[in-house]
Amino acid sequence: MDISEAAERISLKITSHGHPADKASIESKLTRLVNEFGVPPAEAERTVLNELAREFSITTFQAAGGPGDQKTLGQVQNGEWVTVECKVVALTSAPSPSIAQAGILADNSGAMRFVVWARANAPALTAGKWYRFESAVVDQYKGMLSLKVHSGTTVTEIPHEGALKPAITPIRDLSPGVVCIRGKVVQEWEATHDRILQSGMIADETGGIRFVMWKEEGRERLNPGGVYTIFYATADEFNSRLSLTLNPATIVPEEGDIPVSTGNASFQGAFVHLAPGSGLIRRCPVEGCNRVLSRQNYCPVHEIQPQYHYDLRIKGWLDNGIETREILVQRGETERLVEMNLDQARELAENNPLGMDEVFMKFREALLGRYLACQGRVIENRMLVSACEILHYQPEQLADLLNRAGGSL
After folding, report:
1. What's the burial of 191, exposed, middle or buried (CB within 10 Å: 0-12/13-18/19+)?
2. Residue 80 and residue 57 in contact, taking contact as beta carbons nearer than 8 Å
3. How confident is the model at residue 201 (pLDDT cuts 50, 70, 90)?
4. Hey, is 379 helix, strand or coil?
5. pLDDT computed for residue 341 by the predictor
6. What is the Cα–Cα distance from 310 to 308, expressed in whole angstroms?
7. Residue 288 pLDDT > 80, yes or no?
8. Is the preceding peptide bond at 395 cis, omega within 30 degrees of 0?
9. Is the distance from CB of 208 to CB of 201 less than 8 angstroms?
């Protein structure tokens, strides 16, 4: 594009409506957009024309282009300057003074994050309302698209009838971005940071994904075993693994149950370490919490809890000679592996001077040095075990190995 010619076209359009146009200033703006910011020339011309149209309140021509330039959120691509009509489904706190507003936009084709720069001087957006964004910029960070509202973007509230119909994505098919899922909370993990309200794993028929919910006014914990439809959560990728952030998603509890994938990973190895927090444990009784209590019955969220309830679990490490794998075994498989149920463990702890430490030592005697074959789901090198068995010595296998090595019995 010849910037001088583009400036002349813009100047003629403005002056034809009886307003003055500084051609040198127009050329300067075009040059900056094209050369400094890498804006496509046609988009730069529309942006400058759009800005002048707003300045002089010109409404007889459409500066941002015709209807053919409008796209749905599902059609936009990284690097494009687009016009979209969508609904503000959530607003979030601005992470920086340079940002006026941030949140999530959605239409019937999809959803994505948005940012309104403070220098854009755009009207304040309201959650639940529809807007037309003209000449907004789409960029990408960690595989996630985002819509940026800048000084050249025109934002107009528009009427809209009918409700959004967001598509539910199977967990197996998730990719970075804003997503809607339906799943069951199958694991709850201890919080690793005081800002975390809850973390764990949610699963459906196709797979599972780690989730985290940060502390925020009005946010409530999910119930383990509960089924939820979650609209407009954020799927982020870190170390080639996806995780789901539930702020500021809309979470709707559902009735009934759904079948879930338990994972098909397998690992065999020697049980080389029984980690603290194994054996007989106490959990917080507050509804929706279920955190493991300290020896003083202290919950990091709900403080001292004298009316705790007991549970059994195994935390430890398997080693196959090549790699190690952390495993977490819940009560059902734990009882079977150590041949001790919850009532027996409680009785042992209550009638022994060592208390719960006696149960821990019994677990260690039953497991340490034994070979285990486990199946389950692996998340960040931790296997959430759904099935586990102790491997016993088989003489015929030893004989076969000796024969293959050329030895003799």
Report:
1. middle
2. no
3. confident
4. strand
5. 94
6. 7
7. no
8. no
9. yes
User: Distance (Å, rounded) from C-alpha 251 to C-alpha 258?
Assistant: 17
Is the pLDDT assigned to residue 142 strictly greater than 80?
no
Contacts of 148 (CB under 8 A, 6+ apart): 114, 115, 117, 136, 137, 138, 139
Q: What angle do CA 177, 158, 233 make, to 5 degrees?
A: 20
Is residue 350 a contact partner of residue 321, using CB atoms and an 8 Å limit?
no
Rounded-to-integer distance, Cα 323 and Cα 333, Å: 23
Q: CA dihedral in degrees (174, 179, 184, 187; nearest 10)?
A: 70
Both tokens of 265, joined, read 């990973």
Which tokens in the block code for residue 401?
């190995």
Type of residue found at 38: G
DSSP of 63-129? TT--GGGB--TTT--TT-EEEEEEEEEEEE--SSTTEEEEEEEEETTEEEEEEEEGGG-PPPP-TT-
With b meaning 16 or more CB within 10 Å and e meaning fewer, what string describes 33-47?
bbeeeebeeebbbbb
Q: Which two tokens stand for residue 126?
A: 């309201």
| Element at 8 (helix H, strand E) | helix 3-15
Angle between helices 3-15 and 41-55 (to 10 degrees): 30
| CA dihedral for 343, 344, 345, 351, sign (positive or negative) | positive
Q: Report the distance separating Cα 201 and Cα 83, nearest Å.
A: 37
Residue type, position 23, single letter = K
* Beta bridge mates, 229: 182, 252
- Contact, 197 vs 219, CB < 8 A? yes
Joined together, the tokens standing for residue 41 give 């020339």
Q: DSSP code of 206?
A: S
Q: Which residue shows structure tokens 């300290």?
A: 294
Look up residue 70 and give its DSSP letter.
B
Cα 408 to Cα 44, 306, 396: the distances in Å are: 82, 62, 13
Q: What 3-state DSSP class applies to 229?
A: strand
